[in-house]
UniProtKB/TrEMBL annotation:
Name of the gene: VvCHDh000867_4
Keyword Protein biosynthesis: yes
Protein name: Phenylalanine--tRNA ligase, chloroplastic/mitochondrial
InterPro entries: aa-tRNA-synth_II/BPL/LPL, Phenylalanyl-tRNA_Synthase
Domain spans labelled Phenylalanyl-tRNA synthetase: 18-154
Naturally occurring in which organism (per UniProt): Vitis vinifera (Grape)
Amino acid sequence: MCASTSLSISLEALRCVVMNFDDVLVPPDHISRSYNDTYYIDPQTVLRCHTSAHQAELLRRGHTHFLVTGDVYRRDSIDSTHYPVFHQMEGVRVFLPGDWEASGMDGTSYAAEDLKKCLEGLARHLFGDVEMRWIDTYFPFTNPSFELEIYFQASCTEVFKGILLRVIQLNWLAVCKSKAFGDP
């Protein structure tokens, strides 16, 4: 069920606040918007906090499935799992009603099942035949949200966050369901 994807490269790390936060439905009072968490260049421009800052732009250009990989910037304290600059990858696919209607499933269930199959396949490709489990979780911008953990080198490790995107502010997308993975 995994679709072929479009790939965009050389996307600008400087993003306007609207693209970095508003277009991906980050609430106005969310902590990630603070000057303590985000690198502001000026009041309207930031270094992207996530590759999601390109989602709405790519959807408006007509892409219905794509991967975005890039460097992202967060004002994190340095420790074993945090650093102010790191690389992130996410993928998005939009499903039209014709994609799921024949399956007998609702659009959300169809997109979630497709996403899980794709990410399990990617995990097997990267890590081999490992034990995996899905954990239901919560992200304020998506519903449903879940994470894939693998048992690797004697411990459980989160390897993918799987999310179903809320409807982004595009009229034609209102009847569609979409899936994404990455770090919201």
